[in-house]
Structure formats: C-alpha cells, structure tokens
Amino acid sequence: MEVFEWSHKLRDIVNTQDKLIVFTLTLIMGAMVIDFLTGTLAARVNPNIDFKSKEGINGILRKLASIALLSFCIPLSVLLPEGIGLGALQILYIGYLFFELKSILENFDKLGINTMMFKDFIEKFSNIEKEDKNDELDK
Q: The dihedral of CA 41, 96, 116, 49: what is its sign?
C-alpha cells in the first residue's frame, strides 16, 4: 500500500542502531527548537509571564550545552562492551526527548491550549517506568 510508504522509508532511515541514535538526537534538537519557540510565544502572549530577552538567551545557551553534552555521549557509548553503550545512550536520548516534550506541553498550557490527553499519556508512561525500576530493585 502506498499509504504507508512513508513509514517504510522512515524505517529504512533508522535500520541500524547508529542511525537510530542520530535520528533520536535530531528529534531532540527539533523538540528543542519547538520548545524555545512555544516558550517565547507563551511569554509574549501570556500577561502573567515577564518577557525577558536575557531568559531567552540563557535558554538557548542551556539547549546548546545540552546538545553538546548529548553529542559527546556518542563516542563515549562505544567504550561499553557488546552494544550496551548504544542501548544506554538510546535510553538517555528517549528520556531527554520526553523531558523536552513535557516542556512543550507546559508551554502549550501557558498559551491556553488543552493538553490533558498528552499529559495523561506521559504520566502513565512515567508510572510504568517507575514500576519497572521498583520491580528491578525488588529482585
């Protein structure tokens, strides 16, 4: 079916662990841009938030530092044996991506957009993750 052709092309892009890592890092950077733009828009539109260019510049610098640190983790991941490093790096990246998505949802809230459905999903996902960690500690 041609309807799902984009899905197959996307799977071809991420068909190796290395490509998946780079793709996830790209998603994080895209989420960072959206987070910055929605945060700036929320500060402009919402009268309860002071719009300060200094805070915006600090936000950009924090995001650039985060990208540098996340990128630095790529060569570090090969130091761990048997692909463990790439798996750990992917978990780190997915966690950071959820952090960025949560920040975007907070900005949408400040803009007055209803995000309850997405918040419920993230909360349920977080609870599953916490339960998995508790199960591992009990063993």
A: negative
